[in-house]
Amino acid sequence: MIKSNFVQRTIYGSIYVVLILGAIFSNSPYLTGALLAAMGSLGIFEFQSIVSINRDRLFLKIWHSLMGLLLFFIVTTSGVEPLDQKEKIIFSLPYTAYVFFYILAELFRNRKSPIREVAYAFAAHAYCIIPLAVVHRLCVDSTLILPENIPTWMSHTFWLLPMFVFIWINDTGAFLVGSLMGKTKLFERISPKKTWEGFMGGVLFTLLFSIGFYFLFPEVLSFLQWLLLALLVSILATLGDLFESLLKRTYNVKDSGSIMPGHGGILDRIDSLIMVSVPVFIFVCIVSML
Hints:
This protein is mainly alpha-helical. Helix content is about 75%, strand content about 5%. It has helices at about 1-25, 30-50, 60-75, 85-105, 115-130, 130-140, 160-180, 195-215, 225-250, 265-290; strands spanning about 185, 190-195. The chain has a two-stranded antiparallel ribbon. Strand 1 and strand 2 (about 190-195) form a beta hairpin. Helix 4 packs antiparallel against helix 5 (about 115-130). The chain is globular, with a radius of gyration of 20 Å. The termini are far apart. Its main location: membrane. Its EC number is 2.7.7.41. It is a multi-pass membrane protein. Belongs to the CDS family.
């Protein structure tokens, strides 16, 4: 049974990694955007399941998840230069209309906590979509593309590579060190298995890998900047994981979903990315201005 679960986890984990790396190495903002938007939409569906909103209305649950795709498009195109202000407003109108429709519909739905329904519904959009859309802005924002520094074969998607790799290495390092020598609980109330030893192991592994990135791409960031990026990702990835654990523990849910057997749901895979995305975007913006 243990061997079967390990094989299953390895297979689905490998598929997930191949999809992410395939999108990154394609250097296509469109392919990367489609993958991130799909992950966000699935995350919205799982978020609704966790907090038990739209539970009896599967169509509305699916529709609300799909409307997240529209929000993703609005956020990712908001900084694209070819679009003028009028076009951006036009693109935003359907989502704005949907928000008003959703609020209006609550007036006619017989719910004990209608405000809770609305709050959680759009909290799902904010939590799952906006951070992933910010990640995609790293691919489409022309001010963040550094032709003289970033390899041309990854000129659009380069920043996603260290972001994802650091998250994965942090998880791996934390698991290995925590399993071997973890004793001091990190946040036992939220995640009983996490330890300070595991956390420090994840940070150390990530910092070591950042040195490898420096030797591979010394023109992109300085040695210190690579270390700072790795440290930022490592700390925030752990916080993202803890926050999703808090969400699941609050509603007594083990996994966010079952789309990835052995791993849980898509939120269980992107919880760290959600927390990391905006600070990394800010970091890259700062680096681009130096």
